[in-house]
Amino acid sequence: MTSLTLALPKGRMFEESATLLRRAGLAIDVPRGGRALRHAFEQPDGSVLTVLELRNSDVPAYVDLGVADAGVVGKDVLMEAGRDVYEPLDLGFGACRLSLIRERGAASEILRIASKYPRLAAAFAHERGLAAEVVKLSGNIELACLTGLADAVVDIVQTGSTLRANDLEEVEVLATSSARFVVNRTALKLKRDRLRPLVMSLRAVLEGSAPT
Ligand SMILES: Nc1ncnc2c1ncn2[C@@H]1O[C@H](COP(=O)(O)OP(=O)(O)OP(=O)(O)O)[C@@H](O)[C@H]1O
Ligand SMILES: O=P(O)(O)OC[C@H]1O[C@H](OP(=O)(O)OP(=O)(O)O)[C@H](O)[C@@H]1O
């Protein structure tokens, strides 16, 4: 029996990831609120499934380096990571935009951009011919605009509530994002017997052609 290891993001996408994988036939029942970071589940076919609970931003490295055979991660984080993983499925949930955000009406030259996505922010600045310095921050990114730390930020917009609450403006959408199922390229060959059916089951669930 081929064992599988999956890297799942522990944050806002965890429950939807686990639910979708269950609907695709995997036996996963991670106890919430515990401190265990690694969980093993015996599958109906006798194989063992290991689930690693990771920061969303750490999923690409775990999958690319082969510690996990596959995983779930936001497309935004996947683009930022620049890792060479196979990306067979858009899972649909976790939809958001990665946007350039400024104070409403701001017209000054953009000399500094703050972001949790420094590579994507730098690529955007380069594309636009902006000689802007990029400052990497870790959270509440919009504050950088409000305080003058940066002239603009590159960050997630989902409902737009954060923008409205802080009188900010979405100037340009750099990319759209949603959760992706990603697979290690070597595992795709060596564990083909487990991974191909899993991808096919996930696809059937997403297309609504699998029993719920
Ligand atoms: N409103 C939102 N804010 C942030 N991320 C969102 C939002 N809506 C959807 N997402 C997606 O969820 C992912 C964030 O998931 P999660 O909450 O696990 O990460 P985080 O705690 O923000 O950061 P880290 O990547 O460091 O774990 C984003 O990468 C994005 O793909
Ligand atoms: O358009 P909205 O629905 O308001 O969502 C967008 C906000 O949500 C995220 O922040 P999060 O709460 O994840 O905190 P963080 O800034 O610490 O990542 C993101 O960074 C935005 O600030």
From TrEMBL:
Protein keywords: Amino-acid biosynthesis, ATP-binding, Cytoplasm, Glycosyltransferase, Histidine biosynthesis, Nucleotide-binding, Transferase
GO molecular function, one term: ATP binding
Keyword flag Glycosyltransferase: yes
Family, similarity comment: Belongs to the ATP phosphoribosyltransferase family. Short subfamily.
Record's comment describing the protein's domains: Lacks the C-terminal regulatory region which is replaced by HisZ.
Purpose: Catalyzes the condensation of ATP and 5-phosphoribose 1-diphosphate to form N'-(5'-phosphoribosyl)-ATP (PR-ATP). Has a crucial role in the pathway because the rate of histidine biosynthesis seems to be controlled primarily by regulation of HisG enzymatic activity.
Name under which the protein is recorded: ATP phosphoribosyltransferase
Species in which this protein is naturally found: Deinococcus yavapaiensis KR-236
